[in-house]
Amino acid sequence: MATIKLPAVLVGGSSTSEVEVAGDTVRELFDNHADEHGSELRDSVIEDGEIKEFINVYVEGTPVDGIDAEVPEDAQVRVIPAASGGR
């Protein structure tokens, strides 16, 4: 199973959390996570069947090019909201 590392801002906690989820693609990971834990995370990351514009998803440190990107067994997947602000 892949391990998804989630920042506190997406999971409402005070620190980064990790969850193991089965799936061969980014889409399957988030769908399977939603089946087990509710759709809050998926809805924070995916909109209209695509990764939201200001969310970055990395598989083994490489940015994915879309929701159907492959996820190897035992991969680390990071979800990082884009930082913005200031001038």
Description:
The chain has 87 residues and is an alpha+beta fold. The chain has a single domain (2-81), classed as Beta-grasp domain (Ubiquitin-like (UB roll), Roll). Helix content is 25%, strand content 31%. It contains three helices and seven strands. The chain has helices at 8-11, 26-37, 40-45; strands at 2-6, 17-21, 46-47, 50-51, 55-59, 62-63, 76-81. The strands form two sheets. It has a five-stranded mixed beta sheet with strand order 2-1-7-5-6. Strands 3-4 form a two-stranded antiparallel ribbon. Strand 5 and strand 6 (62-63) form a beta hairpin. It comes from Halorubrum lipolyticum DSM 21995. InterPro entries: Beta-grasp_dom_sf, Mopterin_synth/thiamin_S_b, ThiS/MoaD-like. It holds the Pfam family ThiS. This is Sulfur carrier protein ThiS.
**CATH topology description:** Ubiquitin-like (UB roll)
Strand pairing plus helix content: what structural class? Answer: alpha+beta
* Low-confidence sequence ranges: none
Q: Major β-sheet, in short?
A: 5 strands, mixed
Residues in helix, %: 25-40%
According to DSSP, the number of beta strands is 7
Compute the gyration radius: what is it?
Answer: 12 Å
Second-tier CATH architecture: Roll
Using the alpha-carbon principal axes, give the shape.
globular
The first-to-last residue Cα distance is 41 Å
CATH class: Alpha Beta
Please give a quick description of this structure.
InterPro entries: Beta-grasp_dom_sf, Mopterin_synth/thiamin_S_b, ThiS/MoaD-like. This is Sulfur carrier protein ThiS. The chain has helices at 8-11, 26-37, 40-45; strands at 2-6, 17-21, 46-47, 50-51, 55-59, 62-63, 76-81.
